Amino acid sequence: MTSEPDIEAVAADLRRQLARRLERDGWIRSPEWRAAVEAVPRHVFLPRFYRESDAPGVTAWEPVTPETVGQEEWLRLVYTDETWMTQFDGRDIDWSDPKPISNAAPTSSSTLPGLVVRMLEDLDVHEGMNVLEIGTGTGYSTALMCHRLGAEGVTSIETDEGVARRARDALATSGRSPHLLVGDGRVGHPDGAPYDRLIATCGFRNIPPAWLEQVVPGGVILTTLRGWMRSLGLVKLIVTGDSASGWFSEDDPSFMIARQQDAPESLGMIPGPDDGTTRQATYGPGVLTRSGPGFMAQLAAPDARFFSMPVDAGPVSTYVLDAVTGSFAVLAPTDGGWQVRQGGPRRLWDAVESAVAIWEKYGSPSTAAFGVTVSRDAQAVWLGNPSGPQWPLPS
Predict the structure, then answer these.
(1) pLDDT tens digits along 3-57
(2) Which of 106, 158, 255, 311 could lock onto 136 through a cystine, CB 3.0 to 4.6 A?
């Protein structure tokens, strides 16, 4: 068993190794953020966590604590560039006797340091700035910002009281005391405004109007936009008075969706076998799961979700259901491809196919070809430039 002083020495060495890896991989691009990674003890923010089990079958997670895997292995895992789960289904974990977990949805985590630092680099902060963070989580990213800017320049909001309490304790243990709040991140914190930068570490279906009001003109909003089917990606917006615009990043980092914008429990009504009208489909359900077409499908059907199941012991069909409008599309295999049956106020598959066709017409570009324009009255994702093809974000 490693002694307490040895733990700190080992952790400090592991932090230096992590910083070197993140710099080598291109995530750390400045000495200030490297110094922050080397200084902030991630193990204080991750005393216990869950990792995904490699056992076959249903997705399951196993607890990782100094007691279950040994202190050396626990520390080694803490300082790897991995995301570790810290909460499921919005419920606190009984760490007095932790058990493997399955059939549960992760609701809080410590995001992989590479992504955290990459976002902080993209935030482009400078000394003296005032930053608002949406989603405190374990408090690790909050601590990195405190090291870089000083605790007085950092305000962080967490929606879950238990998660917020543990983050507050960890930050205090690490000697950092930012402004910490429990509440709905969509409303921001007007009493601490104006902010030079706003960073969200959970996904949102749209940009909350309050953020526009609380970030200074010329300031930056960095957040992940996502829907109920998939993430759209990381977007960096520059605020210009009562509006903001910017571009998606090249890759597609995904965060858990903000709890206030989570999908309704019910997927919607499953249509009867004779409901709707039928036609031959141009695209099959595979477009929903491939990266580029899936991005377009999420834009085209922002309130939809999908699943697949066999119908009357026959072939597997894919159901696309819109719980907001009651619209549906059912895709069934045929000898020559796919047949789609649609009904409701929106022709969901018509919208998906139109969006995918536009994407292909423009050369099947990456997400970096897409931008976002946000005002108090309207929000839209566009392709190429604000005058190009566009799709509204859900209100």
Answers:
(1) 565 899 999 999 999 999 999 999 999 999 999 999 999 999 999 999 998 877 7
(2) 158
From the number of C-beta atoms within 10 Å of its C-beta (0-12, 13-18, 19+), residue 308 rates as: exposed
Beta partners for residue 317, in sequence order: 309
- What's the pLDDT tens digit per position in 92-102? 899 988 999 99
Report the distance separating Cα 208 and Cα 216, nearest Å: 15
Task: Give the contacts of 165 (CB within 8 A, at least 6 positions apart).
Answer: none
| Other beta carbons within 10 Å of 344 | 18
Give the whole-angstrom CA distance, residue 383 versus residue 386: 7
Contact 373, 238 (CB under 8 A): no
DSSP string, 53-110: ---SSS-EEEEE-HHHH-HHHHHHHHTSS--EEEEETTB---TTS---EES--EEEEE
Half-sphere exposure of 345 (CA within 13 A, CB side): 8
| DSSP notation for 332-368 | EEETTEEEEEEESSS-HHHHHHHHHHHHHHTT---GG
109 is catalytic: yes
The predicted-structure confidence for 165-199, as pLDDT tens digits, reads as follows 999 999 999 999 999 999 999 999 999 999 999 99
- Residue 96 CA, distance from chain mean position: 30
**Pair of tokens at residue 126:** 């400078």
d(CA 205, CA 102): 27
Catalytic residue (one of 30, 53, 108, 109): 109
Q: Which of 247, 244, 155, 236 is nearest to 194 (CA)?
A: 155
Mean pLDDT of the chain: 94
Q: Which residues contact 245 (CB under 8 A, 6 or more apart)?
A: 237, 238, 371, 372, 373, 374, 386
